[in-house]
Amino acid sequence: SEKLGIQIKFQPIDWDMKETELQNGTIDAIWNGYTATDERKEKVAFTLPYMENQQVLVSKKSQNIHSIQDMTDKILGAQAGSSGYLNFEGQPELLKNRVKDQKANQYQSFNEALIDLKNDRIDALLIDRVYANYYLQSEGILSDYNV
Length: 147
Description:
Layout: H1 18-24, H2 38-41, E1 55-60, E2 76-79, H3 83-90, E3 104-107, H4 110-118, E4 124-128, H5 129-138, E5 145-146
Parallel strand pairs: 2-3, 2-4
Antiparallel strand pairs: 1-4, 1-5
């Protein structure tokens, strides 16, 4: 920001409304794990990619979840509007058809979802690997979870 001579204000937003927030001018940029898809490229301008990320399942080790196959009849959480949730809906044969009631509990933020995961209200969370590792390490609980 100093090089450009501009002030930056980081603010949390409702991730499900990110494009609307951008189009309405409530925010000037989306900075986070915003996946560049062909559909999104029609709506917004992207910079060069600045990181690689993957969608992963995070679960307590006590749940014995090590792969998608272990998710049969399990309760899944995901952030509303996230890349993980969009893939969950768009490719039901991968995960949606396995989980309990063929749905994911949707959260406005990953923090809310991670709290429910810690408190056993969901069995696993579909989340960005980078954020999952950051959160679990900063909380000092990474060794208690499978990522």
